[in-house]
Design a protein that fits this description.
By secondary structure, the protein is mostly helical. The protein has two domains: 56 residues, Arc Repressor Mutant, subunit A (Orthogonal Bundle), CATH 1.10.10; 133 residues, no CATH class. 71% of the residues lie in helices and 0% in strands. The protein is elongated, with a radius of gyration of 22 Å. GO terms for molecular function: DNA binding. This is AcrR family transcriptional regulator. InterPro entries: Homeodomain-like_sf, HTH_TetR. Keywords: DNA-binding.
């Protein structure tokens, strides 16, 4: 006879596995259907889980979408840029925004839940629950490459630049179901123009300063 602790751990593990399977199934369905066409019953069927169990984990499809949106946002924070030195902060920003656009264009679930016009605002807000992370990531990237001017709220400033880019991304998804090259360009213009209020056109790269100091020794 199994001990109570062992049975409880098995039940918890089984519950986590089912919950993850439902989220994964919803993500798969969003590659094929629009966000407002999918029901929790469809998700349960795709995950091969009884509908009654699905409703135990998620009272309705919106709750499931919120969890998936958070998962997608978490994935985006882990995107790595190519390791290289940028000569201009504008190019560094372009690489950051362009990499985000590439991720979003490669995943219809991410485009729909994070940017799509049919997604309810509360679902998008769930994905942005601590979206300041993206501002921190962009600031860290720029700060690792350049000697930045002192800003009162640097992470917030970078976050606002990302929000400007996201606005153009959302408009593009609404009109073209993807982030087009033209709208990616507009997103870069908007984000760059905003940051240009805080950064001069040319910033001294840190790597170059290090190289000069080494050569002088």
């Amino acid at each position: 006879m199994a001990e109570p602790g062992t049975t409880k751990r098995y039940t918890q593990a089984r519950g986590r596995a089912r919950r993850e399977a439902l989220v994964a199934a919803a993500r798969t369905l969003l590659q094929e259907c629009s966000v407002d066409e999918i029901t929790l019953t469809m998700v349960a069927e795709r995950a091969s889980i009884p509908a009654s169990s699905a409703y135990h984990f998620f009272p309705d499809i919106r709750v499931l979408y919120k969890e998936l949106a958070c998962q997608l946002a978490d994935e985006m924070t882990e995107i790595e840029l190519p390791a290289m030195q940028y000569d201009r902060w504008q190019d560094c920003l372009a690489a950051f925004v362009g990499t985000s656009a590439m991720y979003l264009n490669g995943d219809a679930a991410a485009r729909q839940l994070l940017l799509g016009p049919q997604t309810a605002p509360d679902i998008k807000r769930a994905a942005c629950h601590d979206d300041m992370r993206f501002g921190a990531i962009l600031f860290s990237l720029l700060d690792s490459q350049f000697h930045l001017p002192k800003l009162r709220t640097p992470v917030l400033t970078c976050f606002y630049a990302i929000q400007i880019a996201d606005t153009f991304f959302s408009l593009s998804v609404q009109d073209h179901q993807k982030i087009s090259e033209d709208m990616l360009g507009e997103a870069l213009v908007g984000a760059t123009s905003y940051l240009a209020n805080y950064f001069p056109p040319i910033l001294q790269p840190k790597a170059k300063l290090t190289a000069v100091a080494t050569d002088a020794m």
